[in-house]
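Hey forum,

I'm writing up a methods section and want to include a predicted complex as supplementary material. The small molecule is pyridoxal-5'-phosphate. I've pasted the protein sequence and the SMILES. Can someone with a working setup run it? I'll credit the forum in the acknowledgements.
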Amino acid sequence: METQTVAELTEKYLMNTYKRAPVAFASGQGARLTDVEGKTYLDFLAGIAVSILGHNHPRLTAAVQQQAARVIHTSNLYLIPPQAQLAQWLVEHSACDQAFFCNSGAEANEAAIKLARKFGAGEGRFEILVADQSFHGRTLAALAATAQPKYHKGFEPLPPGFVPVQWNDFSALEAAVTPRTCAIMLEPIQGEGGLRFPSPGYLGTVRRLCDERGLVLILDEIQTGMGRTGRLFAYEHFGIEPDILTLAKALGGGVPIGAVLAKKHVAQAFQPGDHGSTFGGNFLACAASFAVVTTIEQDGLIQHAAELGTYLVDQLRTLARTHSAITEVRGLGLMVAVELSTETAPQVVDAARERGLLLNAVQPNTLRLVPPLVITRQDVDEAVRILAESLASVTQPVTTAVVGHGS
Ligand SMILES: *Cc1c(COP(=O)(O)O)cnc(C)c1O
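Reply by user p_vandermeer:
Happy to help. Structure tokens for the complex are below, copy them as they are.
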């Protein structure tokens, strides 16, 4: 099917929820995608921080094929061996004790919110403090936790009980705690809000506040988790542990799966009948995810992400010295943002795609690079070269002095 045909069918038969680039991919290999016309792209978006092993990874492909040939789904009314195995792996590699599986990030956050509320219910606590510019998903409660008014418009009334507080402002957070507060919910590094990092010490003080006031700390690592930042979980960089941890995106390497992990004393709040998901943790998703997590571990991809992330940030900062359009490069592992002096990020994204590089804009002036963890130094060099060309094509260099513009 040609791109034009796909575009026409999409416009006619799909709800208009996405602004889509006019590209239809047909296949992928490693960090590269090929479109239906045969053009190849270097993928520094990875399906929005999802395809952590790149495309068509032999271990993930084999796990999906083999599991599909046995059994895909039986329901949570029965025991599911790959689900038990995946839960064990996640618990043994995290600060948490038990898992619940679902199918997406928003669903993982819904479950986390329900768990925190159930935990606080005995004491009449239900409020959850959230950070401005957060992103927790599109279902109604996850949306209420997402403190960005632009996502709320048209969908009110949202479920009550979410209190937005300035990100990185510990005094404001402390002042917002009331006897009704049950939890604080944060992304350790804000993703969709523009790749905003916590200021030094912030998360440590939040953890202490939670301990002092008996609050549940929910960390949404849906974007930062699974080795992306150069640690399996981003919280490891900040010397803290969550009480509840939510995962999705990279967890299945592209096969839909979400997870909520929790410490035992919190996890115990859920009893049979309190929560559920028909598809959650089925054979196919868990077999895929188990292949992903064991590959991350066995292939040393976390260390690789740390090294390549440092290299990518260094190369981008070198580029910034000759391209005044770049005002800041920030990143941790392979979660990297390039901030521009003007709101031209969407045009740079288009220019880069035309030149064979995929990335996206998280703010009008901020580019996000979240490549698969399997990229090489040559891939980074190529991405930085294409980005340089794209920036040059979008930003008009000032070549002559402005004359006579008055005072
Ligand atoms: C993407 C994302 C979500 C939502 O995940 P979905 O799978 O789209 O529901 C939630 N939180 C964070 C931090 C995310 O990056």
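Some notes you might quote in the supplement: The domain at 60-298 is CATH 3.40.640.10 (Aspartate Aminotransferase; domain 2). The mean pLDDT is 96.
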